[in-house]
Amino acid sequence: MNKLIALLVVLGLSALVSGERIVNCYWGTWANYRSGNGKFDVSNIDANLCTHLSYSFFGINDNGEIQSLDTWLDYDLGFISQAVGLKSQNHNLKVLAVVGGWNEGSVKYSAMAGDWNRRQNFINSALNLLRNNGFDGLDLDWEYPNQRGGQWEDRANFVTLLRELREAFAPYGYELSIAVGAGESIASSSYEIANIAQQVNFINVMTYDFAMASDGQTGFNAPQWAIENSINYWLNNGAPADKLVLGIGTYGRSFQLTDASQNWPGAPCRGVGGAGPFTGEGGYLGYNEICVNNWQTVFDYNNAAPYAFSGDQWVSFDNVLSVQWKMDFALSKNLAGAMVWSLETDDFRGLCGESFPLLKTINRKLRW
After folding, report:
1. DSSP code of 75?
2. What span, in angstroms and rounded, lies between the C-alpha atoms of 353 and 131?
3. What is d(CA 75, CA 240) in angstroms, rounded to the nearest whole number?
4. What whole-number distance in Å separates Cα of residue 240 and Cα of residue 249?
5. Contact 45, 55 (CB under 8 A)
6. Which residues contact 160 (CB under 8 A, 6 or more apart)?
7. How many CB atoms lie within 10 A of CB 19?
8. Is residue 8 very low, low, confident or very high in pLDDT (cuts 50, 70, 90)?
9. What is the mean pLDDT of residues 290-310?
10. pLDDT confidence band for 283 (50 / 70 / 90)
């Protein structure tokens, strides 16, 4: 009997831990402008599939103040208020405002982090943004300190900025998270890992984009070995496992093959693959675009990742099986959870089966 009780206690604790894991859903709000089955707005979000909804993106001005990048969408259409309103469907949902992103660059953030007045402008505008709109916290996606026009001092200044944000947020209970470059080459240049980890609630590790057409050959967007190496690097350099959130890309990186008969990983490519009907960007296909194609698909077990090809088009992406493998790794390392970039490129309409297959796979592993 005692063994049975002990087993039930262990199972109960496991369920509790699993239930508390983070599933952070980034949402690129500009998908509202996509056509047909690619159009995505608040009504397409299943609030129960996320513990956090990360509303992307806000930017900053030259004075360091946070600003809307699309006031018509954010306020006139009411996307912010509608997003925050999803908490009525899931009372435990946290809605975060995301500042930064690739297109925002690094220069303004470097200047802001290194100047006391601009930091205060940033912090005060962050408080106003959260208070005035009902957000539960801020996610800072500076890509990347000490790179893309930044400077070495960014590393220490980033710690200072995060510490001041944490102190300003504390009286209100606001959460603070960051999105970070995953691999050692980026992380070693950009971050004082142990120091930033002390200042934030959790760290979204962008474990994807490990291969691009600019490499001159096809490659995997998120091979298992690269993900494991990246997470182990963060762990070994002072990031606690319970603050690391593993990134899953709900999209693929596509390539135009130099020779259509050479269609394997590492084959030469002449550039990015053709744009998809929804995302409209060369070299990038949403999972909702990939799954409807009748391309030949191969699952590469050495990389725990699929790829597909048709003619001179080649794409590497994640599917249900590869996401399962990644979640098993996250569980083996007792990570805080997982995040997706991003909601609107999963198969949210269920064109190929169930809706949100990748996000639901994450939930089945981590929460259900």
Report:
1. I
2. 40
3. 37
4. 23
5. no
6. 113, 119
7. 12
8. very low
9. 98
10. very high
Name residues whose C-beta falls within 8 Å of residue 146's C-beta, 6 or more positions apart in sequence. 152, 154, 155, 189, 190
- Which domains are seen in the chain, by residue range? 21-248+318-366 (3.20.20.80)
E strands of 160-217, at which residues?
Answer: 175-181, 202-206
Q: Which three-class secondary structure state does DSSP give residue 289?
A: helix
Residue 4: count other Cβ atoms within 10 Å of its Cβ.
8
- CB of 207 closer than 8 Å to CB of 222: yes
- Name the 3-class secondary structure at 183: coil
Residue 55 contacts residue 115 (beta carbons within 8 Å): no
The answer to whether the beta carbons of residues 228 and 333 sit under 8 Å apart is no
DSSP H or E segment with residue 58: strand 52-60
What is the rounded average pLDDT of the residues 79-86? 98
Contacts for 268 with CB less than 8 Å, ≥ 6 apart: 216, 217, 257, 258, 259, 262
Which is more confident, 324 or 10? 324
Whole-prediction pTM value?
Answer: 0.94
Distance CA(333)–CA(88), nearest Å, equals 33
Closest to 345 measured CA to CA, from 51, 74, 30, 58: 30
Predicted local distance difference test score (pLDDT) of residue 18:
39
Q: Which of 20, 65, 104, 143 is catalytic?
A: 143
C-alpha distances in angstroms, 43 versus 85, 86, 168, 286, 367?
A: 11, 9, 33, 19, 23
In this model, does residue 300 exceed pLDDT 50?
A: yes
> CA 300, 319, 350 angle in degrees (round to 5)?
150
Evaluate the CA torsion angle 360, 364, 366, 368 in order and state its sign. positive
Residue at 13: amino acid letter? L
Mapped onto helix, strand or coil, the DSSP state of residue 311 is: coil
Determine the average pLDDT of the residues in 74-100: 98
Task: List all residues 6 or more positions away from 332 whose beta carbon is below 8 Å from its beta carbon.
Answer: none
Catalytic residue status for 143: yes
Backbone angles phi, psi at 244, to 5 degrees: -95, 130
* Site of tokens 């469907």: 89
Neighbours of 217 (CB within 10 A): 16
Contact residues for 281 (Cβ-Cβ < 8 A; gap 6+): 275
